[in-house]
Specification:
Number of helices: 2
Largest sheet: 10 strands, antiparallel
Radius of gyration: 23 Å
Strand content: over 45%
Shape: globular
Number of strands: 24
Length: 312
């Protein structure tokens, strides 16, 4: 066996100016080729006579626990990126192992580049047992010149990976009332796409955009009395924002103090809140899944994200 690789990081230049966002703290990364095959038979023959690529819609996906950095970079609706002269747009690296050693070092790694497209958030999860994670997806479009994903071997890595942002599920208040015993938080950003749109016989799409963003927040709690508070049919979001916090862990310690502006706050000002399911089983605590469906109030995003917040 000549080589083997592991994950590394994603580097994004969303503006085409060389001002990068370096996504490290990855727990997984992948690329899906997205090939739609053409296999064609005719004339009543048992075997196909033709094979080819009909369309190709590749995707890069990765999950990072560096939540504040990632959310600052892409927000609720994602960001577009496009290569400028001499500037790479989005690079995904696979890091080489060294036979009989640890890592291969400079000039041994694999780089996959998207020159144009969008990067969007898919899901955010956090619980009590380990770091929260944000899953992101990059959808490329063809720039008319380069391969939709360019692949280069024997590359140097960029950036300096670290682990310096760890968040866990924190306190939640619904319509101004604290919710007890929160154990996990899940945000489905609910992004649907217009496209990718293929045209002019090209194998790669030239256009993609965000069609809708319809987020859905699920809070899992041990407080089964939540159904009494919200009612069997739920409750409208009141004038007092519902607040969901992600607590920042302190390196070499426990948690950053609530008064420190180091936590993440998700605020919802309009929508519907209801208990979707309550359940219990022998030998374990019962749980309740509370759903928040944020809607647009005509002014603010359905979820207002603050990455440097105190917990109040």
């Amino acid at each position: 066996m000549d080589n083997a690789f592991t994950l590394y990081a994603v580097n994004l230049d969303k503006s085409g100016t060389g001002s990068d966002t370096f996504f490290d703290q990855l727990s997984d990364q992948s690329i899906a080729a997205g090939i739609s095959e053409m296999l064609i038979g005719a004339s009543g023959e048992v075997y196909n006579r033709f094979s080819g690529v009909g369309q190709q819609d590749p995707r890069i996906s990765f999950t990072t626990s560096k939540l504040a950095t990632a959310l600052d970079a892409i927000g609720l609706n994602g960001v577009s990126f496009e290569k400028a002269t001499g500037v790479t747009a989005l690079d995904l690296f696979f890091q080489a192992y060294a036979q009989g050693g640890i890592r291969g070092g400079a000039g041994t790694n694999l780089k996959l580049t998207m020159n144009k497209g969008i990067l969007i958030p898919r899901t955010l999860t956090a619980d009590q047992s380990g770091p929260g994670g944000l899953e992101l997806e990059a959808i490329p479009t063809w720039d008319g010149t380069n391969d939709i994903v360019s692949i280069a071997k024997d590359q140097d890595l960029v950036g300096s990976p670290d682990v310096d942002e760890i968040f866990l599920a924190g306190p939640v208040s619904l319509n101004g009332t604290s919710l007890d015993s929160v154990i996990s938080i899940n945000v489905d950003f609910g992004i649907t796409l217009r496209g990718p749109i293929f045209s002019e016989g090209a194998v790669w799409a030239k256009f993609v955009a965000v069609e809708t963003t319809q987020p859905r927040i699920t809070i899992t709690t041990l407080d089964l009395e939540a159904i009494h508070t919200l009612g069997i049919s739920g409750s409208a979001q009141s004038a007092t924002d519902s607040l969901i916090y992600l607590v920042r862990a302190k390196e070499g310690g426990t948690r950053e103090a609530n008064g420190e502006s180091k936590h993440i706050k998700l605020a919802v000002g309009e929508g519907l809140i209801f208990v979707d399911r309550e359940a219990g089983s022998q030998g374990s605590e019962g749980t309740a899944d509370i759903i928040i469906l944020p809607t647009y109030d005509g002014s603010n995003d359905p979820i207002v994200i603050t990455t440097g917040s105190a917990i109040t």
